[in-house]
Amino acid sequence: MVFKKNIFLNRELSWLSFNERVIQEAEDKTVPLIERLKFLGIFSNNRDEFFRVRVATLKRIVSQHKKSLNLFEDPSEQLLQIHKTVVNQQRKFDFIYQNILKELSQHNISIINEEKLNAAQKGFVKEYFKENVMPSLFPIMLSNSSKFPYLKDRSGYLIVKLGSNTNSKKNKYAIIEVPTNLLSRFVILPTEKTKHFIILLDDVIRFCLEDVFNNFNHDYIECYNIKLTRDAEIDMDNGLSKSFVEKISKGLKDRKKGQPVRLVYDQNIAPDMLAFIMKKIKLRKNDNLIPGGRYHNFKDFISFPNIGNPNLSYKKTVSFKHPDLKDRASLLKVIKQKDILLSYPYQSFEHIIDLLREASIDPKVESIKITLYRVAKNSNIVKALINAIKNGKKVTAVIELQARFDEEANIYWANKLQEEGATIIYGVPGLKVHSKLFLISRKEASGLMQYAHIGTGNFNGDTAKIYTDHSLLTADKRITEEVAQVFTFYSDNLKKGSYKHLLVSPFLMRKKIVQLINKEIQNAKAGKPAYIILKLNNLVDSEMIKKLYEASSEGVKIKLIIRGICCLVAGVKGLSDNIEGISIVDKFLEHSRVFVFCNGGHEKYFLSSADWMARNLDYRSEVGVPIYDKTIQQQVRKVIDLLWEDNTKARILDSKQNNEYRKTTSNKKIRAQEEIYNLYKTTS
User: Fold this and answer.
1) Residue tagged active-site, from 196, 322, 351, 434
2) For domain 5-305, which CATH number applies: 3.30.1490.20, 3.30.1840.10, 2.40.30.20, 3.40.50.300?
3) DSSP H or E run through 644
4) Mean local confidence (pLDDT), 493-513
5) What pTM value is reported for the model?
């Protein structure tokens, strides 16, 4: 087929469209109020990362006069489109926030600023400031001649003007970091009868500015919020004299000094103050200057306290025990008899901890090998591995030091495990290890028996409570022997292995997926049933998209469930008539990757750690696993069908990117995540 460049949606704008779906949740009045505030926090946090990574990359390309390889797009034009979209989204954000504040007040919860404090509240804030805030404040005085202080990425600052009514040359400027790393952003004021009040830490500081600057002569004080976002890319030299860990550590320090890529400021800021800041930070008008409201760093709102009616938040979700694993003395014995699929957060991640704990004390277990990409802050996974070492097991951990924004934590855990005696492998040169594997080797009467985990999500008990993911536990030799080959490759990069069952990138995953698509094309041409169902976080890779277009044009029916970026344009006559796409944003973050191929009526199912992006298929170590167990296939299909039937939280993916809610022929309101939760509840 001959393709035109306009058959792809712009990656960056598609991502912004995804974040628009997040802000839709904040706007949705069926979502509990506190959760709507949290979605504003998620939106803000997402956007921060977008600027730190994607926008920073585009700015680097422009500054180096390189042409973008990103789907034929001009990076300068992309930056203009991004800026326009972000400004519009910020207006929507501010509007939604103000509406939420009004609705909160109807529930006797008020977020008030320093100007709305009554006498009793003023006394409380003064005392709170004196006891808790003042010791954490370190104002920096500024002048036109002095060097402007380094502003940390993602931190909130107050820019202060100590003004003179008689001579503007006597104006003094200062900057104060809001110490949210030490104190809560939200200060709960004393309750008055049934009314609850919260003041932001920013406004506590504003209220007490006279106490901070009482030794300076001034007639008035002006104060505004600003936030700077910096380039998060880690640059590493290729010198052989430094270890990989040292290079990553140096890169982390350099990241903190990355080039500014965005300045968010209070739209009411005095023009002279904004000009002063821009001059000092060396930003121009076209450098992503985003006018905002009174407050920034809304990521803190992810942790907004519910001090009112419990119904203002989602009810706490209880994860169910897997029916084949609950009340079992040995999980290894169960897995030896049959494959087990765990689905989070509907089922308990504790089963994984229990399995590793059992392996750590089982006298017949000889070794545990595991890949670690992102682990929890207080990781029970790592504790189980350390316990295994203390019980004489050989533990090998493949730790990816380039897991973006988790590099520092991963260095810490690598050192911790190494101190205890684990063998540590720092990834693979030139590749990120993104696979979700562990392999337990146990000496049994019949010989060495191996038990494997292949999953779609990280070994992280915290994210397993809010991310939807799958873990396949199996003793099937067809799978375990190939998982062992993957670990051999990690320890000896020359031994790539051969894989008949697993989908392994960067070696064979792309090739095997293309073969599976080709089989559907052949079947469609022969008049046989032919369809593909894909559940992914992101669909970006141009070659894979072209292959799906080809399949569609030959009559293959394709259903896409894509949470985030989707560069494929569905429903285009003559190109993608047979492709439908939806995206679901709801209480849980849809994170699992599932591939289903009709295969002439003998369906093939795969779970994978990989999205369909060039980085996943060509530049990362990823693993997809076939599901051979028919019962598990049916379980996965039921979940996929429920997701596809969603007519409450599903949005249509099309060329318009306006995120219209999807309507179905069903008269019943179907909210997939609730239906799936009830499904696991009835089978637990």
Assistant:
1) 434
2) 3.30.1840.10
3) helix 630-645
4) 95
5) 0.90
Long-range contacts, 306-310 (Cβ 8 Å, 24+): 306/34, 307/109, 307/188, 307/196, 307/198, 308/104, 308/107, 308/108, 308/109, 308/196, 309/107
Q: How high is the pLDDT of residue 65?
A: 65
Where does 107-165 have alpha helices with state H?
Answer: 119-128
Which residue, 566, 553, 641, is CA-closest to 603? 641
Architecture of domain 504-683: 2-Layer Sandwich (3.30)
* DSSP one-letter code for 377: T
Half-sphere exposure of 105 (CA within 13 A, CB side): 9
CATH class of 331-498: alpha beta
Q: Is 434 a catalytic residue?
A: yes
Q: CA-to-CA distance for 256 and 153, rounded, in angstroms?
A: 7
Tell me how far CA of residue 120 lies from CA of 117, 184, 198, 308, 474, in angstroms. 8, 21, 14, 21, 63
pLDDT at 447 over 90: yes
Q: What is the pLDDT of residues 356-399, one digit of tens each?
A: 999 999 999 999 999 998 887 788 999 999 999 999 999 999 98
Q: What is the pLDDT of residues 40-74, one digit of tens each?
A: 999 999 998 898 888 888 887 887 765 544 445 67
- Exposure string (b/e) for 199-209, b if CB count within 10 Å is 16 or more? bbbbbbbbbbb
Phi, psi values for residue 335, rounded to 5°: -65, -30
Is the predicted pLDDT of residue 602 greater than 50, yes or no? yes
- Cβ atoms of 100 and 36 closer than 8 Å: yes
